[in-house]
Amino acid sequence: MNTQQARSALGKYGEDLAARRLTEAGMTVLERNWRGGRSGEIDIVARDGSTLVVCEVKTRRGGAYQHPMAAVTPDKASRLRDLAQRWIQTHGGAPPGGVRIDLVGVVVPDRGAPVVEHARGVA
């Protein structure tokens, strides 16, 4: 498995864990890996009551790089807001509870269980 395949597999694993965490928190996952044209993709689109949740998932190996929760820069937040608007336009308008951007950070250690953190309203 090359580096790109390994990163892709790690990302998919992290997204699976994130979707499970959101579901356990009472949210409904509407879509995964939604592509908004060339401007990027939303990892998970979910509904939390009457609120639409655009969720960015960041997965890291334990000990490597920065903490995943540090991954949403102002540029990234802006891009996620643009993608959220595009999703709303193609899916019939804004929900009554508005839109929230969440981040799920997944750290996969060399040994032991992964750590999944869910931050609401990060941007």
Describe what this molecule looks like in 3D.
This is UPF0102 protein GCM10010121_070080. It comes from Streptomyces brasiliensis. Pfam families: UPF0102. This protein is of the alpha+beta class. It has a single domain (3-119), classed as Trna Endonuclease, Chain: A, domain 1, CATH 3.40.1350.10. The protein contains 2 helices and 5 strands; from the N terminus they run H-E-E-E-H-E-E. The protein has helices spanning 3-24, 74-90, and strands spanning 28-35, 41-48, 51-61, 99-108, 115-119. A 5-stranded mixed beta sheet has the order 1-2-3-4-5, with helices on both faces. Strand 1 and strand 2 form a beta hairpin. The longest helix is centred in the N-terminal third of the chain and has 22 residues, at 3-24. The protein is globular and about 45 Å long. The mean pLDDT is 90.
What key attributes describe this structure?
123 residues, alpha+beta, Trna Endonuclease, Chain: A, domain 1, five-stranded mixed β-sheet, 2 helices, 5 strands, globular
SSE blueprint:
Blueprint: H1 3-24, E1 28-35, E2 41-48, E3 51-61, H2 74-90, E4 99-108, E5 115-119
GO molecular function: nucleic acid binding
InterPro entries: Restrct_endonuc-II-like (IPR011335), tRNA_endonuc-like_dom_sf (IPR011856), UPF0102_YraN-like (IPR003509)
Family: Belongs to the UPF0102 family.
